[in-house]
Fold this sequence. Notes:
Blueprint: E1 2-7, H1 12-16, H2 28-41, E2 48-51, H3 55-68, E3 72-74, H4 98-106, H5 121-136, E4 142-147, H6 149-161, H7 167-176, E5 184-190, E6 193-201
Parallel strand pairs: 1-4, 2-3, 2-4
Antiparallel strand pairs: 1-5, 5-6
Amino acid sequence: MRIYFIRHGKSVLNESGIHQGPETPLSAVGKEQASYVARRLKHVVFEQIISSDMDRAKETAEIIHRETGVPLEITPLARERNLPKEFHGKPHDDPTLAAAKAEIEKNIRNPDFRHSDEETFFDLKDRAKKLVTFLEGRKEKAVVVVLHGTILRYVLATMAYGDDLDWDRYIGLAKLLQLNNTGITVCEQQEGRWKLITWNDHAHLGEVN
């Protein structure tokens, strides 16, 4: 099985450096990015588009669907990490969030800790495993999955480490794997093992960023 993972196009709040909730739409640049990657995918053979249920991913996936005619389905398994709701709509460097961020970071390896209503490392590890299992159970030979940067890193870490994934392994991988909006990452399952074929191919963007 071959999976073409696509990070969503740039959102309005990506451009503003604001913590996002699920309803953030694509910006004008993000829509243009999505159109570029959609036209590129017209030359790729795949049987299904699967998207996160968050608006910026769904909007990207719908543009790909309209361009390619390939059917689209939605799953919450592919959504981005759920941040504490108190973060939504606030700048990344908002000083009022500093104490909460420090508390979360201090307790990141503690499976019994939760600041408020956010997803923890352990929640994300579990959801990434469910997403990988969901994809492994598909009958298609090739699919496109439109999702988000953090959950994609968790998926790749799960493919690499399985149940042995811990925070230190994850963060070491995540720091290495930087990702552009609409970057294409290709993974292929061969003889029961996942292989990373392509990471963050964004040649379709040209001067659009």
